[in-house]
Design brief:
mainly beta
Length: about 110
């Protein structure tokens, strides 16, 4: 079951990013072309529809949907941003599944 799916990728910056799919069940495509090794280079001005790019469940992925600036160091946790869907504890309430934004070391950046 897909909970969160990315349908378009647009880069309005002057930086280059790499997006890596962390969902083993879907093959992401940009403008109908499969991503080699599940990774896409997003150059400045990039603007394409995508298909099969899902934000994975936290419990079914080892990396999440990963975004990294091209000049970033993959060994530095602050240079990687991961997105997953997973449960969040709410005081006195049942757990809910939320989109979560995390650092490379899986520390929470934001949950919306």
């Amino acid at each position: 079951m897909v909970v969160a799916q990315v349908v378009r990728i647009r880069n309005n910056t002057m930086r280059t990013f790499r997006i890596t799919s962390g969902d083993p069940f879907y093959t992401p495509c940009a403008d109908g072309q499969p991503w080699p090794n599940g990774m896409l280079e997003v150059t400045p001005g990039f603007d394409q529809a995508c298909d099969g790019l899902c934000v994975p469940w936290e419990s079914t992925t080892t990396m999440g949907l990963e975004i990294q600036e091209e000049r970033g160091d993959p060994k530095r946790d602050e240079d990687v941003v991961r997105f997953v869907v997973g449960p969040v504890d709410v005081e006195g309430e049942t757990q809910y599944d939320w989109l979560q934004c995390r650092r490379g070391d899986w520390e929470i950046l934001a949950q919306e």
